[in-house]
Amino acid sequence: MKRAIDFNTAVGLVLRAGVIVSFTIVGVGSAMMFAEGQTGYSSLGSAEQLYQMHDRFLLGFAPLVSGVLSAKPYAIIDLGLLILLATPVARVFVSFFLFLGERRYSFVLITLGVLSLLLFSMFVVGPLVSG
Questions:
Q1: Most exposed residue of 24, 47, 59, 106, measured as fewest CB within 10 angstroms of its CB?
Q2: Strands annotated E in the chain
Q3: Cβ atoms of residues 68 and 28 within 8 Å
Q4: CA 52 to CA 15: how far, in whole Å?
């Protein structure tokens, strides 16, 4: 029985694409920071000085989007890191549909459980711990 999409190929493509896109975005943000000599958030300049001034980094989706739209180097680097962190979650998401397409329902349930735990830890536990 020939599969329409090879499981390992599909998962490999997701992981490879996530790392390449992330690396590219972080590289662009780093080059911008190097060229401008500042993070884009402070006239003080360096990321270390920004951290010391605010005693924390800017957190949240809204500041990230605002910073990326304003072409702030630090926000662009953060976007690349966010994509890198989301890559394994995307792998589990793709695996769910591949297992579903193969009608391997025990793996579908296991993958759904893993995906649920990942999303729960990111969107429920994460904000509780950091807030």
A1: 106
A2: none
A3: no
A4: 35
